[in-house]
Amino acid sequence: MKKILFVAMILALVSCETSAFKQFDRDFPENRWARTDVRSYDFDLENDGNYDLFVDFSHVYGAQFPSIPLRMEIYLPDGTKTNEKFVVQIKDEKGDIGDCNGDYSDLRHEVFTGRELESGKYKITLANEFDFDYFPNVIGLGIRVAESKNQ
Questions:
Q1: What residues form DSSP beta bridges with 151?
Q2: How far apart are CA 36 and CA 135, in angstroms?
Q3: What's the pTM?
Q4: Using CA atoms, how far apart are residues 141 and 99, in angstroms rounded to an integer?
Q5: 2, 38, 124, 141 - which has most CB atoms within 10 Å?
Q6: Which phi and psi angles does 11 have, rounded to 5°?
Q7: Would you call 123 exposed, middle or buried from its count of C-beta atoms within 10 A (0-12, 13-18, 19+)?
Q8: Which own/partner contact pairs does 120-123 have at CB distance under 8 Å and 24+ positions apart?
Q9: Any idea what DSSP says for residue 135?
Q10: What domains can you pick out in the chain, each with its CATH number?
Q11: Sequence-distant (≥ 6) Cβ neighbours of residue 68 within 8 angstroms
Q12: Which residues contact 131 (CB under 8 A, 6 or more apart)?
């Protein structure tokens, strides 16, 4: 039994990523993400370097829609802004994708990897561009910025 616990601890330590920033919001009244509800994330990067950016998305299992279109704006330390538009796939022909457990499913969408970023203050906003007033069955949404392993 002790060997199993030791191996589990080693695997947990080895698999950990170095996150420079992560935030996950769970405040979605009636599990609906309104089109007008733009989420904002403010953070500081302490060091220049290459970073990966991910969007974490959690939804009720048994998705009604196969994907959600998102718009991301990244405000850089020098005052400029970049725009990213992408689609997060929620299900394929076999059903929900991601890490599904019970009544929910968690997805991690890669926005970019190995992008060179300078130290300083950042702001990222996320908005859904779904065709209707809200996207249903949303449990949570967040971003994760990590030091890139692809340097």
A1: none
A2: 11
A3: 0.83
A4: 15
A5: 141
A6: -60, -40
A7: middle
A8: 120/44, 120/45, 120/76, 120/77, 120/78, 121/42, 121/43, 121/44, 121/77, 122/42, 122/43, 122/44, 122/45, 122/74, 122/75, 122/76, 122/77, 123/40, 123/41, 123/42, 123/74, 123/75
A9: E
A10: 19-147 (2.60.120.260)
A11: 57, 87, 88, 90, 128, 130, 135
A12: none
The region that residue 77 occupies, defined by phi over 0 for left and psi between -120 and 50 for alpha, beta otherwise, is: alpha
> Residue 56: which H helix or E strand, with range?
strand 49-60
CA distance 71 to 112: 14
Which tens digits make up the pLDDT trace of 50-89?
Answer: 999 999 999 998 888 999 999 999 999 999 999 999 999 9
